[in-house]
Amino acid sequence: MEQQQHLFVCILLAFCLTSSTNGGKVLVWYTEASHWINMKHVLETLVDRGHAVTVLMLFMDNKDSKFKYETFNVSFPLEEIEKFLEDYLHFSMYEMDQLSYLQIYIRHIELAKMDLYYNLKYLDGIIKSEFMMKKLKDENFDVLLADPIYPGSDLVADILGIPLVFTLRFSLVNNWERHCGQRPAPPSYVPGAMSKLTEKMDFSERVWNFGFYLLNDLMYQHFFWKDIDKYYSDVKGTPTSGCEMMGKADFWLIRTYWDFDSPHPILPNFKYVGGIHCKPAKPLPKHIEEFVQGSGEHGVIVFTFGSMINNITREKANMIASALAQIPQKVLWKYKGETPETLGANTRLYDWIPQNDLLGHPKTRAFVTHGGTNGIYEAIYHGVPMVGIPMFADQPSNIIQLKARGAALILNLNFMTTEDFRDALTIVINDKSYKENAMQLSRIHHDRPMSPRDEAIFWIEYTMRNKGAKHLRVQAHELTWFQYHSLDVLVFLLSIVLLITLLFIKACSLCFRRCCGSKRKTKRE
Amino acid sequence: MEQQQHLFVCILLAFCLTSSTNGGKVLVWYTEASHWINMKHVLETLVDRGHAVTVLMLFMDNKDSKFKYETFNVSFPLEEIEKFLEDYLHFSMYEMDQLSYLQIYIRHIELAKMDLYYNLKYLDGIIKSEFMMKKLKDENFDVLLADPIYPGSDLVADILGIPLVFTLRFSLVNNWERHCGQRPAPPSYVPGAMSKLTEKMDFSERVWNFGFYLLNDLMYQHFFWKDIDKYYSDVKGTPTSGCEMMGKADFWLIRTYWDFDSPHPILPNFKYVGGIHCKPAKPLPKHIEEFVQGSGEHGVIVFTFGSMINNITREKANMIASALAQIPQKVLWKYKGETPETLGANTRLYDWIPQNDLLGHPKTRAFVTHGGTNGIYEAIYHGVPMVGIPMFADQPSNIIQLKARGAALILNLNFMTTEDFRDALTIVINDKSYKENAMQLSRIHHDRPMSPRDEAIFWIEYTMRNKGAKHLRVQAHELTWFQYHSLDVLVFLLSIVLLITLLFIKACSLCFRRCCGSKRKTKRE
Question: What pLDDT, in 10s, does the model give residues B110-142?
C-alpha cells in the first residue's frame, strides 16, 4: 500500500513542476535568518510556477535573481540591532539558567519591548514612506505573503487592499493564533508555545501551562498590543486593533505538522505545512563524500547550532569536542569559532555543510542540533534520531516534543559534561528504538495527501484566484470575548432564573400571608 | 489560474483511477436510505482500488455484486420499524408545525427512545450472535467503516481489535462530535445541528442556540447515553462509556464542507468530505432528454422530495402541481403518489429520475428539494439554485444555510400556498443573483486540493496501512470535563490566592493588635 502513496507524491510533484499558470503577483514581507531560509523555498516554487515574486528587504546582502527586491531604509544604524540580537542570544544561552522565573519574565519583557521598538522602526521605513507605499500600490499585487514575526504586514495589506497569507512557526503561548486567528487552544491539553511541555500534562504541568498562558497573555496585552494598537491607529487615523488586523488574514500556514506537534484544534483557514522546505538529498561534494565514506560501518554524526550561532565559549567548545573524540563515528561539525584544543581526528569543522544532503545520506547515524524547526524537519524528513542542545525561542519545546516521541535526547549547554554528551550520542545511535521512532515520525511526515510545499502553494494560489478566502474565516472574529464565551447569554438566562425564583418566593409569601391573615381573621371572628 | 486547478483535479482523478493497491479488507457497518446512497459511492471506489468490501446488512434487497454482504437477523418483525418510520415522518411533516416547543421536545424524546430501542435490537443481531462475531473476527478486517447513525460500530471495532473510521453528516447539536470526538464548538458561533440557525446569530439567536445545546445535551445524557452505557457495559462485562468508545474512532469523515457549512473549529482527525458522492453528469435517457430539450429557452426544473418521501397528501400535491402549471419552465417531478388533478402539461411525474445528470444539464434552471444533504450537494456541484421545502432532520437547517448564502429560497409545506411556490420559483429562476451565488458555492466546492471522494479514500487507506491513526487524536480524550476546562487548576490557584489573602489579613491584624496593644500598654504605663 506504500507504493500508491509514493505514486501519489510523485504525481503531485510532477504537477508542481510542470503545470503552467496565469502568473500572479506576490508581495513578500521582509524577514530573515531561519524564517527567510524557510520561505525562500516556497518563493522559488512560486516563481517556477510563473508568478512574479517581489520581496521587501531590509538591505540587499543575498540578492537572488529569481525574485525582484524592494529595499527600504531604516532610521537607525543597523549595528544597534545586531548588538541587541547578540545580547538576546547571550541571555538565552548563558544567563537564563542562572536566573529565577521572575527574573527571566522581567528580562523577557524588557527584550520584547526593545524588539518591538526596533520592529516599529523597520515598519516606519515602509509605511511612513510615501514613495514606497505608492510604489507598492501601483504594482497591484494579488497577495501579500508574510511571516508575522515582523509586525505590520496586515496593516500594509489592508492599506493596499490585497489578501494576506501568513506563514508562521508559532507565537509565544499561541497568542496570535488564539486571540487574533481565533484558533481554540484549551490550556488543559494544548501546551503553550515555548512552555517546554508536551500535550501529556499532569496536574502540576497543567497549572504551569495555565499560568504560562495567563502571564504571557498579560505581557502581550501590556507590552505589545498596546503599542501596536497605538501605531496602527496613528497610521489609519481611526482607533484600530492590531489583533483584529491580524485576524483579517485569509490563511495561516503553520510550519508544523502532527509528526512532532501536539494534535490540537484547528480552523478551516489554518493549514499545517511543517517541512515546507524539505527535499530529497542530493549527492555530497566529493571531499565530504570521501570523509563520510571513511566512517565505515560506524557512520557519521551531523552537528550544527543553526544559522544564528556560529561559535560558543572556548570552554564549551572543548567540552563538546572532547566528547566527540570519544565516539567511533566521524563527525561533521558546522562551527566557525576557534578550533578547540580537544578536537579529535574523527571530527571535522566546516563553515558550511550541505545539511539536508548529509541528513539524507545512508551513513548518517544521528543529528546534533540546537532544535530549530528547519533542521528538525530535515531530520524528520530523512528519519534521523537527534541529540538536542537547545538555546532559545521554540528550540527547547521542539526537542522536548521529540524526546517525548522517543526520537531524541536533550542536553543543556550550561550543565552538560563531556560524559553526558558522549553517553547521549552513544544511546541515540546504539539504542535502536531512537532510529525506529525517528523513522515512524518520518512515515507520518510523508504520509499525507500532498507535500507541505504543494499544500502551501495551493492555498497561496487559491487566495490569489479567489481574491481572498473570507468564507473560511469563523464568525468568532465578529464577537467580543464576552459574547464568544456566551457570558452575555449566561447573565441573561441567570437573570431570568433569578427573576422567576424571586417572583415565585414573592407569590408564595403573598399566599402564605393571605392564608395566615384569613386564619387570624377567622380566629378573631 | 483556473486551468491549473482543473489540471490538478484531473491528475488526482487519474491517480485514483489508475494506481494499484495492496488490497485491504474493509468491513462496512449497516446503514440505509440516503446514508447508504452516499456511502455506496465510496465503497465502489474502494473496490475499484483493489480492496475487498464486506457490508453488514439488515436484509438483502439491493444486492450489488461489487460487495460481499453479511446479513444478520433481528428479533422483531421489520414492519414494526417501518410503522415507526412512518409515524416519525408524519410527525415531522404535518404535526410539528401545530405544536409548541415543549410539545415538540417531549415528542422528540419519545421518538429518540423508540429509535434507540430498535437500534439496540438491531445491534443484538450482530453482537449477541456468537456465530456472526466469530465470522467477523476470523475475517481479520483492516478497518471498520461506519455511519454512526446506527450505534454499536465502535463497540464491535473494539471487540474485533480493528481501527474505526466514521462517516457522518451530523449528530443533533453536534453532541457526538463535541462530547465524544472532542471537537470544540462554542455555542456563540457554531449553530447546533438542527437548530435552524446559521453562524451569524444575533443575541436572541445566541440565547436560542445556547438553550438548544443545553436541552439536547440533557436529552442525550438521559435518553441515549444512559442506555448505551448500560448496553456496552453488559457486553464488555465492565463499566464502559459509549461516548468514550465513540471517541476511539481514528477518523471522522464529515459529509459537509465550507461551501455551505459554517466554518468552525476542527481537529486533525476530522476531515470534511461534503459531496463525496458527486460526479459529472452523464447523458440523459433519450425520452428525458427530448422532454428537457422541449423546454426551449425557459429550461427545466428538477423536483424531488428525496428517497424517503414518495408521496404527500392529495391537497398538498394539488397545491404544488397548480403552482408548477403556472410557470413557463418544464418540470420533472419525482413523485410516486396519485397524479394531482391540477397537473399542468409542462409537468411530468417520474418514479425515478437521474437526478445528478439532470442537475448537471445546461437546461436546468432550478432544483426543488426537501433539503437532504445528498441532493443539495449535487446541486452545489453543478451550481443550480434551489427552492427548499424541508421536512425533517437536517433539512430545514440545510436550506436555511443555503438561503443565507443567497442560493435558495425556503417554503413550509404546511403553510405555503400555490402563489408562494410559484413566486419562489419565479424569483430563484429570474433573479440572476441566485444562479450567481449557486455558482460561487460550486466554485468553493470544486476548488480544493483533492476531491472529497479522493480525500475520504486517502484517509480510509491511511488508517489501514498505519493500523489506525491514534497520533492524530487530541489529548482531550484523556481528560475529564473538569480537567478539560481547567476547573481543577482554577480551584487550586484560587485557593492559593485565598490562602495568601487570609494569611495577609491575619498578619495585618496581628501587627495591628500588637501595635494597638503596645500603645494601650504604653498609655496604661
Answer: 888 999 999 999 999 999 999 999 999 999 999
By the 8 A CB rule, do B413 and B316 touch? yes
pLDDT in tens, B416-428: 999 999 999 999 9
| pLDDT per position as a tens digit, A336-378 | 999 999 999 999 999 999 999 999 999 999 999 999 999 999 9
pTM: 0.92
Q: What are phi and psi of A304, to 5 degrees?
A: -155, 150
| C-beta neighbour count of B240 within 10 angstroms | 18
Contact yes or no for B154/B241 (Cβ under 8 A) = no
Instruction: Check: CB of residue B21 under 8 Å from CB of residue B10.
Output: no
Residue B246 CA to residue B165 CA, distance in Å, equals 10
| B234, three cell numbers | 453488559
In whole angstroms, give the CA distance from residue A500 to residue A496: 6
Percentage, residues of chain A above pLDDT 90: 77
Residue A420 has φ and ψ, to the nearest 5°, of -55, -45
Alpha-carbon distance values, A336 to A309, A330, A339, A386 (Å): 9, 18, 8, 22
Q: Which residue has the higher pLDDT, A86 or A243?
A: A243
Instruction: Tell me which chain B residues have a C-beta less than 8 angstroms from the C-beta of A485.
Output: 186, 188
Angle at A33 between CA A31 and CA A36, to 5 degrees: 50
Asked if residues B195 and B208 have their Cβ atoms less than 8 Å apart, the reply is yes
Query: With contacts defined as CB-CB under 8 Å, which chain A residues touch B188?
Result: 476, 479, 483-486, 489
pLDDT tens figures, A109-149: 888 899 999 999 999 999 999 999 999 999 999 999 999 99
Backbone angles phi, psi at A227, to 5 degrees: -70, -40
Tell me the pLDDT tens digit for each residue of A217-240: 998 988 899 999 999 999 999 999
Q: Where are the alpha helices (DSSP H) in A370-417?
A: 373-382, 395-404
Identity of the amino acid at A10: C
pLDDT of the residue at B312: 85
Asked if the model's pLDDT at residue B436 lies above 50, the reply is yes
List, in sequence order, every residue forming a beta bridge with A68; answer none if it has no partner.
Answer: A54
Question: Cα–Cα distances in Å, from A389 out to A86, A94, A196, A408, B281?
Answer: 19, 13, 14, 10, 59
Cβ-contact A97, A414 below 8 angstroms:
yes
Name the grid cell of A418: 563531556
- Alpha-carbon Rg for chain B, nearest whole angstrom, is 28
Measured between alpha carbons, how far is A228 from A120 in angstroms, rounded to an integer? 8
Neighbours of A109 (CB within 10 A): 16
Tell me if A448 sits within 8 A of B471, measured CB to CB: no
Report the candidate in B292, B375, B383 with the shortest Cα–Cα distance to residue B332. Answer: B292
Q: What percent of chain B lies above the pLDDT cut of 90?
A: 77
Angle at B195 between CA B193 and CA B199, to 5 degrees: 80
Grid cell, residue B418, equals 400555490
- Mean pLDDT lowest for which of A12-21, B73-82, B212-221, B332-341? A12-21
B467 reaches A (C-beta below 8 A): no
Alpha-carbon distance A370 to A195, whole Å? 17
What residues of chain A lie within 8 A of the CB of B262, using their CB? 474-475
Is residue A88 predicted with pLDDT exceeding 80?
A: yes
Q: Which H or E run includes A151? A: none
Note whether A258 contacts B: Cβ–Cβ < 8 A.
yes
User: How far is Cα B295 from Cα B290, in angstroms, rounded to an integer?
Assistant: 9
List Cα–Cα distances, A22 to A70, A300, A494, B443, B475, in angstroms: 23, 46, 58, 18, 44
Site from B8, B9, B478 to mutate, A interface, most A CB atoms within 10 angstroms: B8
**Average pLDDT of B400-416?**
96
Contact A55, A70 (CB under 8 A): yes
Query: Smallest CA–CA separation between A256 and chain B, in Å?
Result: 12
